[in-house]
Write a structure and sequence with these properties.
Elements lengths: L1 H16 L8 H28 L19 E12 L7 E5 L14 E9 L8 E11 L6 E10 L8 E9 L5 E9 L6 E12 L3 E12 L2
Antiparallel strand pairs: 1-3, 1-9, 2-3, 3-4, 4-5, 5-6, 6-7, 7-8, 8-9
């Protein structure tokens, strides 16, 4: 193919560079100049593309080799988790206190961590299907808003060992909050979607019950 392109390029250049008769119109000269310009552009683009793709560290993997299905699946998961803020075994703790003047309002500046069970129902005694691990931080001086970084670690059935990662803005005072799903592992590789969360019960001094509905598209 390279020889054909070379022959074609040589022929075209020779033809285009041959002196034109004086009687040839200016429009014909303009047309040939345009063709020459396009030919040079195409040749430059071809060499640039070949150079850029031959980097030595970029490839095109086979999706099947990665365990990916050809078509996307769409799944809806409903989980509950139950935070304990006090007692001998709390599941959510603040390790950095808020800026003093925001201590009783927005919790601006506070940083906390959580590790608690995921259940299929709002009752603490309902079946456990995983854990939620992550961190939260107070990020607003005006409202009670948290930055949340959460990993939903599943332990049930074909999802055992797989995770869904949620990261975004949680406006706690809003009834239903929407947070992006940014990825996952295991059967949730290349996952995208969003989560809706709402507070079922909250006592800031003792405990809370939170519901998460996660809508996610994934290949497995």
């Amino acid at each position: 193919m390279e020889s054909k392109l070379s022959s074609c390029s040589s022929f075209s250049l020779h033809h285009l560079l041959t002196p034109l008769p004086q009687e040839q119109s200016s429009s014909t000269m303009a047309t040939q100049f345009l063709i020459l310009t396009l030919l040079i552009f195409y040749t430059t683009l071809t060499f640039t593309t070949a150079r850029d793709t031959n980097t030595g560290f970029v490839g095109s993997p086979d999706p099947k080799a990665l365990g990916l299905k050809e078509k996307l699946s769409f799944s809806h998961f409903r989980f509950y988790f139950h935070e304990r803020f006090a007692g001998s075994n709390p599941t959510s703790v603040f390790v950095v206190p808020p800026v003093p003047k925001y201590n009783s309002s927005t919790l601006f500046g506070a940083v906390g961590f959580m590790d608690t069970a995921l259940t299929v129902g709002p009752e603490p005694t309902s079946k456990v299907v995983g854990r939620i691990e992550g961190l939260v931080a107070g990020t607003s001086q005006r409202e009670f808003i948290l930055l949340v970084v959460l990993n939903f670690v599943l332990t049930e059935g074909k999802y055992n060992g797989s995770t869904i990662t949620v990261l975004g803005r949680n406006r706690v005072t809003q009834n239903i909050r929407e947070i992006p799903v940014i990825g996952g592992t295991g059967v949730f590789r290349f996952a995208t979607g969003y989560a809706e969360t709402n507070t079922i019960f909250l006592d800031p001094k003792t405990r809370s019950t939170i519901e998460y509905n996660i809508y996610v598209s994934h290949y497995c």
